[in-house]
Amino acid sequence: MLNYTFRRVLVAIPTLLILIVITFLLMHSAPGGPFTSERPLPPQVLANIEAKYGLDDPLFVQLWNYLKGIVLHFDFGPSFVKKSQTVNDIIAQGFPITLTYGGLSFIFATLIGGALGVVAAIRKNTFIDYFAVGISIGAQVLPNFVMAPLLVWLFTLTLGWLPGGGWNDGALPNLVMPVIALATSYMASIARITRSSMLEVLNSNYIRTARAKGLPERTVILRHALKPSLVPLISYLGVAFVGMVTGSVIIDVYFSTGGLGQSFVNSALSRDYSVMMGVTILLGSLTVLFALLADLLYAWVDPKIRY
Amino acid sequence: MNTVTEVKGRSLWSDARRRFFQNKAAVAGLIALTAIVLISFIGPFFAVWSFEEIDWNTMGSAATLGRPSFETGHFFGTDDLGRDIYSRVLQGTQISLKVGVIGAAIAVIVGTVYGTVAGYVGGRTDQIMMRIVDILMSIPFMFVLILLLVIFGRSETMIFVGIGMLAWLDMSRIVRGQTLTLKNKEFVEAARATGVNTPTIIRRHIVPNLLGIVAIYATLLVPLMILTESFISFLGLGVQEPNTSWGALISEGAGTIRYDTEWQLLFPLAFFVVTLFSFFFIGDGLRDALDPKDR
Question: A167 φ, ψ to 5°?
Fold first, then answer.
């Protein structure tokens, strides 16, 4: 286990470095610097600004300084468009919001999806099962950017129950639609995975043994079947996490929740490269870390897995 | 004398075809998809308005004058600028399908070549190649794709290449796994023993046997590509005006939903949903038909 953990961490580190280097190089291959505008600045002024931001150093030195800033001080540098803010300020503003509704969606999708899958498997070929399977097939074609307007149409425009957007310090009515929109398609996938793995477990020999020795069905499922049937889910949770991080961009844009996704899209539209870089690297690191955690958890739960 | 009728051999593919056509959902998907493709190409001949033409009468009052009607010639209504949704949906359908198919094709070609080489050569090369895939896989590619589009401009080629290049990773893993099992089969050994060189073995013996699994995942890749493109277009970072795609149309419809113009959302959404369903059902049908595991 220790050996595996060590090797797995060793893969995560170059992944992070490659992510940072790719983003950095992409940004610097962009035509035009951050200060080229329609009315060209006098060369002396431009040179001064570039010196201030260290843009006149050789590319390699810039990359090194950028890396050093991130690794040592968690510092993503200044924003090139919003002059009074650093990238860290922007991240500090949006990140808690993204984390709040993202985390809730993740919990929601896992719990509801898992429960739906388990119940569907236990009540195979009943109405409940068909209902769960129907939902999980239907939700495949309802990604967050389809769910969001449909929810607004239903809850805000037709029923008038919920506000159509805004954050309002994370008040419950403002949270409901972002969480549902973000969670639906992952909830469906989780339900499908749990159902099929639960069915497989319920068909295995040791469950037959448990039933044969007269255990009540309740104990068979809760004590013996539940835990192993959740194992395949762990590896999917990494995928779901990445999807939800990406999906938060849509949620932020559509519901104006003000999370990191909004900063990302705004900076993409105004070509604020340093903010784009910062957000990409932060969210990228999160996904890498989460994949690492999921893999380690998987190896811990299922000792047969060794790479 | 010759009364013995010749027994017709059943190939893998004719077997698969029979199984596929027994699957009702897959056949329904195939029919729906064919219908959508036909509509998107034949439909424009019946359109009264082109996709970029502005109907000045309905402009600004889409909620009242821009309703879907046969009299005005706007079968699906108009958008806020007075453009015909019918023509725009058809044009968006063409573009979204094109992005889906070309993106998937790029992913399939790159992924198959990469996976076969890694799997067949094996050893250290395989390890390095697959480590690279591992690393690339953990990078959130949607963000990188948006970076690419912002930096190199939002051209259609960039979208094709970007989406395709970022989606080959899964494909290469699947193909590699399949190649590893094929590589040790007797017929490959026989080919090697008779002195066939490696590129020819890969081309003549490995790749044809991969076609089934590649076909399955290609059908499942197309809707994923469409989803990715729609995601980007929804953010306003995909196809550029006056061209459009499902994502862009859904985004416009979603933005104006507050003004009682729900047809702006529902028509493109219907095309989007039906197409994705069709592809998923066809993919499932192909998997049942071609995957020898479930027989």
Answer: -110, -45
Residue B188 inside a domain? The answer is yes
Q: What is the pLDDT of residues B223-280, one digit of tens each?
A: 888 888 888 888 888 787 778 888 888 888 887 777 777 788 888 888 898 998 898 8
The helix/strand/coil state of A86 is strand
Query: Can you give the pLDDT at residue A39?
Result: 66
Which of B135, B142, B269 comes nearest A14 by C-beta?
B135
- Own/partner contacts of A118-121, CB < 8 Å, gap of 24 or more, are A118/A194, A118/A195, A118/A198, A118/A221, A118/A226, A118/A229, A120/A191, A120/A195, A121/A194, A121/A195, A121/A196, A121/A198, A121/A199, A121/A202, A121/A229
CATH number at B233 reads 1.10.3720.10
- Helix/strand/coil for A105: helix
- Does B60 map to a domain? no
A15 chain-B contacts, CB cut-off 8 A = 134-135, 138-139
Nearest beta carbon to residue A245 from set B140, B231, B269 = B140
Minimal C-alpha gap between A87 and chain B (Å): 17
Inter-chain residue contact B250 with A145, CB threshold 8 Å: yes
**Are the beta carbons of A283 and B140 separated by less than 8 Å?**
yes
Q: Between these two residues, B62 and A198, which has the higher pLDDT value?
A: A198
Domain count for chain B: 1
Q: Residue A274 pLDDT more than 70?
A: yes
How many DSSP H helices and E strands does chain B contain? 12, 0
Is B38 contained in some domain?
yes
Report yes or no on B198 lying in a domain: yes
What's the rounded Cα separation, in Å, for the pair B74 and B208? 49
The reported pTM is 0.82
Instruction: Write out chain B residues lying below 8 Å of A268, CB-based.
Output: 146-147, 150, 237
CB contact under 8 A, B258 and A164: yes
**Residue B111 domain boundaries:** 29-43+81-294
Write the Ramachandran bin of A160: left for phi over 0, alpha for psi from -120 to 50, otherwise beta.
left
Averaged over A97-106, what is the pLDDT? Answer: 89
Which residues from chain A sit within 8 angstroms of residue B273, using beta carbons?
141-142, 146
Closest CA to A116 of A131, A98, A140, A132: A132
